[in-house]
Amino acid sequence: MTVKFADITADAPDFEALKNHYSAIEQRLAANDTSVVLAAIDQWDKSRRDVQTWQSLTHLRFNQDTRNEAYKQAREHCDELTPRITELDVRIKKKLVASPLRAKLAEQIGAHCFALWESNVTTYDPVIEQDVVAEAKLEAEYNELLAAARLDFRGESLNHEGIDKYKFDGDRDTRYESMKVKWDWFRAHGEKLDDLYDRLVKLRDQMARKLGMDNYIQLGYRRMTRVDYDQHDVERYRAAVRDHVVPVCEEICRRKANTLGIDKTMFWDEAVHRPEGNPVPNGDHDWMIGQAKTMFDRIGYGLGDFFRIMADNGYLDLKNREGKAGGGFCTDLTSYGMPFVFANFNGTVDDVRVFTHEIGHAFQAYSSRDKRLVDYLWPTYDACEIHSMGLEFLTFPFMDLFFGDQAEVFCNDHLISSLMFLPYGVAVDHFQHLIYADPTASAAARHEMWQSVEKIYLPFRDYGDLPYVKDGGRWQLQRHIYLSPFYYIDYTLALACALQLWVRSRQDRGDTMRDYVALCERGGEAPFQQLAASANLVSPFQANALQEVTAEVKKELNI
Ligand code: ZN
User: Fold this and answer.
1) 361 C-alpha to center of ligand 1: Å?
2) Range list of β-strands (E), 117-276
3) Could you give the 3-state DSSP secondary structure of residue 342?
4) Is residue 65 part of a domain?
5) Which of 113, 170, 295, 507 has an alpha carbon 20 to 30 Å from 139's alpha carbon atom?
6) 52 assigned to some structural domain
7) 4 CA to middle of ligand 1, Å?
8) How close is the Cα of 21 to the center of ligand 1, in Å?
9) What's the number of domains the chain is made of?
């Protein structure tokens, strides 16, 4: 019987009791007996699941209602306690990494966890405890600032998610004017946004130096636990996107101008693909849930039962409402073996993406919930996004359930948006490398850095006279830049893999679905490139990987 979300509780740990429990575990880890050490690892794992459940629930509740004082205080307490708990975990990881029994332990629990722990132990030391707390506070400030925005547009009072629906509108003036309102808000809050980012960048740089690293780039990679590729691989990959994908995107923009009957594809035209605007789902939230149930039943491979468990037990919160934090994400209530999907429906194609993207994450987390180690429940983010973006493409044949006779239009649009996303994604990544290599740069210099990467990867973009974005402010909307440095490249790496799933599913659907489900079940038991290879996907770091998928997309779109 699945526990209802409403019945889930997770009390904040009593830090002193947890510390004593960890000391007892630590002593057992010193035993010269593999079975004793393994039993201690299992005990540690149980504690970590409980702590993670509490962390997830605390952050989730706050995101569901950012105006609730009690939730806010609970989140602040969580943010303060988290580094101290990390310190306890790091102590145990250090012991395990140096254990004389390591080889024998790896036979039982796999070698990958040791690689992850080796990376983890270098990212935390008590000397940065206060910095980590301060970082979480600044991140929360950014979230609250954006969530509190009220944008007045044609008689409506909207938040950022709410106004975004107009970027898909068929009427060009509506698109332009809604964006003007949005970017006017950013202009009005630009100083605050610059200041928040400046404090975050300097803080992160300081943490890296305290940990003995040159700058935050190194620490950022380690925090992302990248164990099988480095900055140079990423740099070559960005160059491949520039060489093979950017020209196709330029062509897409030229063709779009023709389709829309306009001189040039401007920033406010990028999200629409035809004069009448993009297809919208044929119904509201409740209808969509019903359609999603039908879709997942038809797909099979366990997805139907899984989606019902989520929907019928309260593990979806998809409606946009005042005070709710923006964005969409999937989190995990680890001790209960249940994921949770959070989103903000706005009546656009993005809502369908929630069912395909976030449910992909959730299905993976659910499929790997019985892994022995909490480290193996989720893969690193690069691999994580294969499950989510992969499902976006694997649901293509069922899109008539949401879009009726516009399904094919939706799928083509989605392919175009996916391809257009790659250059943007690597631009965000390149920008962050520039930022953290020069942490004392002024706000103006940072805006120039953004413009310099736009020139490389987004040469087709024209902001016209839109406020703020025309002067290099577009990046401040990208929450990952504030909240999850160096995360962004992962989406593009995963997309390069997910597009391969799309190509293969059209050749052999059964085989591809089996590979997909097996990949979900593996969770995070191996690093990115190994996971990709196990699902018969070519690593995006291999020469020509991008050329091949790009060629397929071009063929499909008759480019
Ligand atoms: Zn995702």
Assistant:
1) 7
2) 151-153, 156-158
3) strand
4) yes
5) 113
6) yes
7) 24
8) 34
9) 1
